[in-house]
UniProtKB/TrEMBL annotation:
Residues 2-202 form the N-acetyltransferase domain. InterPro entries: Acyl_CoA_acyltransferase, Glycosyl_Hydrolase_84, GNAT_dom. This is N-acetyltransferase domain-containing protein. It comes from Deinococcus aetherius.
Amino acid sequence: MFEIRPASPADRAALYRICLETADSGADATGLYRDPLLVGHIYAGPYLEFAPDFAFVLKDGAGVGGYVIGVLDTAAFEERLEREWWPGLRSRYLDPADVPPGERTPDERLAHLLHHPQRADPAVLAGYPSHLHIDLLPGAQGEGHGRRMLERLFTALREAGSPGVHLGVGGRNTRAQGFYRHVGFRELARSPSGAITMVLGL
């Protein structure tokens, strides 16, 4: 039986592993990256480090099968990453700015993101200042665990005073899009590349 509990620093390796194994639009991206930690450095590690009150894991006897992580104030979180998280990683991963975007390897694309992180649209943050990431391994999917985990996070964000939450999902990840709509999210914007911003009022 799966249970949801607050994440702890001891879960870091599990979060990084799950992040990598779901990074290819929900599928396993282990074979795509030479450095298996790079995806987690961007999409998991800083949340566990700087927003532990909004980090939860799904666990059973076999270990951690999923997580949901979020932040209350996206703008403040981005500023903190610029001060305290990105500098250390930038010293370890060179900026491949001299490599044409179309020729960059998957690792180089992420390394470029470390040096040039995307910032949330202030227009989105005006009504939906919080954001989240949720990832479940295949064995933990399809039994309502994702909804339960989101509700746990929504409660924490709501109690902390958040009026709304947003997230990003790839245009070709139609399964995730359907899931988010099912739990109440709606599409707010779509970028030229197909990335979708979805929002939910709390």
